[in-house]
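Chapter summary example: a protein plus fe (ii) ion.
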Amino acid sequence: MNWQKLSIAEGEEEFGEGLCCRRLTDKRGTLLHYKISSDSELRGLEAGCWLVVPISGNCELKDGIITVGDLWLGSGTDFDIRAQTGDTAELFALRLNKIDIPEKSQTISGAGRPFVDYPDPNDRPTQPVQVLSEGSVSVLRTRFSPDFCAAEHWHDFDTWYFILAGSMRFGEEGIYNAKDVRQVEGGFSYGPEDPGPEGVDFILVSVGGPVALHWSDLETPPNGSLTVV
Ligand SMILES: [Fe+2]
């Protein structure tokens, strides 16, 4: 299978003080889910390049607050976070295989960043995107309205989808709901992507290069990623 449907409830729980961690996969990357209770801390992840995606609550980092719609990208050993008083926060931490650790770990703020058109070279309709990161770790946030449907397609690189709100059916894979994560290998065709009645709000992570959208009826899928993961 070249895709994974990952739900929090299916991960095995490991408890720490004020922390609950679930390991959802180690295939094509390591995905952990953390639930951090009021005033509890998460200090350090394993070595490697990690992308952190908050999905509820507010957390304090040394240099500010991180919440839904923001990201953190950097060296796992630099990661140090505390849930705000009276709040419980949840986040996903994804270790990106074969990606160099950035020179500087950074918080990427989503607030105030505009949603812009995503031009399709074949002039097919698309939905606006918010560009959160470019380069070897390319990240977009997008919202599909309920009446939009993306026909079968493929991407160049391994892609991870973090559903923030709403729901979406991915072809034969079934329906993904808020807080589910999907991973698909680059170069494999799938779809259609069909949002539920309330639409869907999600973060799309392309590991290795830009999010490139290829329609399967126009370009034959290579059945393999451009990256070596
Ligand atoms: Fe896609």
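Key point: The mean pLDDT is 95.
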